[in-house]
Amino acid sequence: MTNQVKAPHIVKAFSEELEQLSADVAAMGGLAESLVSDALEAAATRDGDLAADVVARDVQVDAMQRDIEKKIIRLLALRHPIAQDLRVCIAALKIVSDLERVGDLAKSIARRVPTLNDSDPTAFAASVDRMGKLVLSHMHEVLDAYATGQAARAVAVWERDDDVDEHYNALFRELLRAMRDDPSMIGPGAHLLFIAKNLERIGDHATNIAEVIHYLVTGRELAPERPRAPRPEMHR
Amino acid sequence: MKRASCPGPVQAAPGTGVIAAGAPGARTGWRGGVFHTRHIRMIPVGMADERANRIPNAPADRPRRRDIALTASLAILVMAVLTLAGEIEPGVFFAGSLALAGLAAVYYLTALTAAEPSPRPAAAAASRPAEADAPGVMLERLPIPVLLIGPGGRIERANPAARAFLGLGAEGGLLSTALRQPRVLEAVSAALRGERGAAVEYATLAPLESHVRAFIEPIGLNAPGPMPFRAMLVLADDTSSKRAERMRADFLANASHELRTPLASLSGFLETLLGPARDDPEARERFLTIMTEQTERMRRLIDDLLSLSRVEMNEHVAPTGVVELNALVTDVVEVLRLAADRRGITIEVTPAPSPTPVRGDHDQLYEVVENLVENAIKYSPDGAAVTVWVEPSRTRDGAEHMPERITPQSGRLTLTAPPLDPDARFAVVRVRDSGPGIERRYLPRLSERFFRVDGQKSGPAAGTGLGLAIVKHIVSRHRGGFSVESAPGAGTVFSAFFALAPAAPLAAGGAEAEPVKTFAGASAAEPVGNRADAVTKV
To answer: Per-residue pLDDT averaged across B51-61, rounded?
Structure first.
């Protein structure tokens, strides 16, 4: 599965530790992914219990981050990894902190669900849901790319963050207009704006992870600045 | 499943009480060696050496030389005794003996040829498993993913269904890399500690929705070492039933909501016809025309809704057929040309230079192209041109958008796309209209059900708002992609792309590719009839 550990080490335990590290990061990715997925489902189905569950489970992500970081520090101290092995450790360190942020953002989405449930369902739920699914598919792809060591798949996600921005911009404009036309939309509209922003940020973390995977596999950095669509907040 | 891959001298611990109902199959598999020796021991002593070296499973009823000789000589002995006792004539004895000897000779010869160790049964025995391997082979061929997880979450065994389901490589690896579901991983590590098994449900929403039930059972082994437990993981794909459940609810909600409007207008007209307009022939005429239009619209709506639910229901089952895109596009355009002619719209078709077979369901791909071309005609002004073309063999990124933008400021958006595979090649159908174009902010909502860009809702030609939703779902079922590029004032290009089928022999009639076919509005009269009859809409 993992193409990351290529030749076996003389110390077999080292190979196993590196492999276990990648597996732990993948498992943490799965947890973060499930939080985002559940937060979205809670928002779509107006399920307050599921939202509360997401908020509660974010603690696990934080715990996993601490645990994996400890393991990495131990690895660095005991094995002095170089080259590919060093990249595996550094990549894990970076990805884990991105995943922790993703968990927080999912929690923040879930926290807004009860408030949204107080107002009537809006026509924008479908747009948020669509954007969420796109972001989720980026997360999924990027974690698959990590598990299989395919840099090309990661780069594809990196290039595709434009689509997320496009969705975000469209949603932003439509929400602004709806809030202008109907003041009763301001309450739920503001929460939906934050949810959309959180999703957009999750998409950014997915591209960060994609950059790290590219570095991990090839040893080189991706182009410094990703071409991105103009932000609507900056314009009007 | 090779026995060599079995985990060591493994034996199931009898009476540990933790072995689940599903476990015995696996248990017997591991003890294959035991079965094998017992099988050989059952063969009568004396025969064993000779036969064990040949085909162990040779049929026992084949006549053997010794049996034939014995039977014949016994019969001759009986006749000799009878002759001596004076019961039968010596002539009869000689004739009978001769006949028996001849018969014995014939049998002897046939037995000789039949018993010859021909290569055929040996080959059959090789392809057919020995009895001892049967449980292992059963596990291999089981269409349900089954995995055995060892200490540390390492995949020790996985049947082909599991490999395909999780996209596993040849070697084991760790479960958490292949299946990132936290609840499953938790249950597996509990089982590895010897705790009770569990059934866990998990769902992935994107890129493709799927619902899976996972059954996790601990398996206790009396192997030495600190890790006596393995975890058996069985996955059951529950997507169809979950989808069916939700589709039904969605269909009812959509249908009742969208049908209410035309229904209300119908009943309004009926009331007017029964009341104030009862004796007004002119108004009656006009109202009846509108009512016909409304019922027609309701019919279209129901057709589209049914079509949409059908597609959604099967969205997770990839189609297996092969469709030639050039012919398909030509067919669709020939059928739609009549409608285009009426408004003086030209449809220009450029097939790919060579036949372009893609993986797909013919009727559904027909619906995709039909919807796109129909839309292009609908939103183009009278006398404008619609362009349809097929591009062969593009990478995913090349398929999504054209190399050149239609205008520098055009909006581009991918509405659905397959996961990236650098080796995958796609054939693209692009449809370009010369309509008013779509504002950038509407692009993400294009494939939403019942979404219509502002100002499109009225008019007799108003669509159901389901066409692009249907296209998106069909494309996503085909693991293909669907994208749009548009700029206000510059028209819109829709691209739908599908994975190229491996170069297989094409169905007859699929290869009629001419470099460029232009169907000008004026020359459109003759060949439409035949094709229109031949191609029926789903």
So the answer is: 42
Nearest by CB to residue A1, choosing from B169, B183, B397, is B169
**Alpha carbons B254 and B264: distance in angstroms, whole number:** 16
Examine the fold and report which residue of B127, B159, B174 is the final residue of a domain before the chain moves on: B127
Say which of A22, A156, A163 has its CB closest to residue B177: A22
Single pTM value for the model: 0.68
Residues B162 and B225 in one domain: yes
pLDDT tens digits, one per residue of B346-392 = 999 999 998 999 999 999 999 999 999 998 998 888 888 999 999 98
Query: Could A30 and B176 be called an inter-chain contact, meaning their C-beta atoms sit closer than 8 Å?
Result: yes
Which residues does B contribute to its contact with A (CB < 8 Å)? Answer: 152-153, 167-169, 171-183, 185, 202-207, 396-397, 411, 413-414, 419-420, 422, 440-445, 448
Nearest CA in chain A to B185: A27
Tell me: the pLDDT tens digits for B416-432? 888 777 788 899 999 99
Q: Is the Cβ pair A127, B444 closer than 8 Å?
A: yes
Residues B79 and B114 in one domain: yes
Structural domains in chain B (count): 4
Is A3 a domain residue? no
CATH number for the domain spanning A71: value is 1.20.58.220
In this predicted structure, the answer to whether residue B65 has a pLDDT above a threshold of 70 is: no
- Interchain pair A1, B177: CB under 8 A: yes
B138 and B282 co-located in one domain: no
Q: What is the pLDDT of residue B519?
A: 38
| Beta carbons of A30 and B397 less than 8 Å apart | no
In a domain, A6, yes or no: no
Evaluated on CA atoms B431, B437, B440, B443, the torsion sign reads: negative
Exposed (0-12), middle (13-18) or buried (19+): which is B77, by Cβ within 10 Å? exposed
B376/B423 same-domain check:
yes
Does residue A51 belong to any structural domain of this protein?
yes
Check: CB of residue B288 under 8 Å from CB of residue B272.
Answer: no
User: What value does the mean pLDDT of chain B take?
Assistant: 75
Q: What one-character-per-residue DSSP string does B461-497 give?
A: T---S-HHHHHHHHHHHTT-EEEEEEETTTEEEEEEE
Block means of pLDDT (10 residues each) for chain A, length 236 residues?
53 80 91 93 90 93 93 89 88 94 95 90 86 92 89 87 90 91 90 94 94 91 64 52
> A2 in a domain, yes or no?
no
**What is residue A22's three-state secondary structure?**
helix
Residues B410 and B346 in one domain: yes
Rounded to a whole number, what is the distance in Å from the CA of A159 to chain B's nearest CA?
Answer: 10
The residue among A163, A169, A199 with the most chain B CBs within 10 A of its CB, best to mutate, is: A163
Task: Tell me: do B79 and B27 sit in the same domain.
Answer: no
- Choosing from B317, B346, B378, the residue where a domain stops is B317
- The answer to whether residues B118 and B138 belong to one domain is no
Q: What is the DSSP string of B158-191?
A: E-HHHHHHHT--SS--BHHHH---HHHHHHHHHH
Domain that holds residue B222: 3-35+130-237
**Interface with chain A: mutation pick from B176, B421, B468, highest number of A CBs within 10 Å:** B176
B99 and B30 in one domain? no
pLDDT at B40 over 50: no
User: Do B180 and A24 count as a contact with CB atoms less than 8 A apart?
Assistant: no
The ipTM, to two decimals, is: 0.80
What's the sign of the alpha-carbon dihedral B300, B305, B307, B308? positive
DSSP of A95-141, one letter per residue? HHHHHHHHHHHHHHHHHHHHHHHHSPP-TTHHHHHHHHHHHHHHHHH
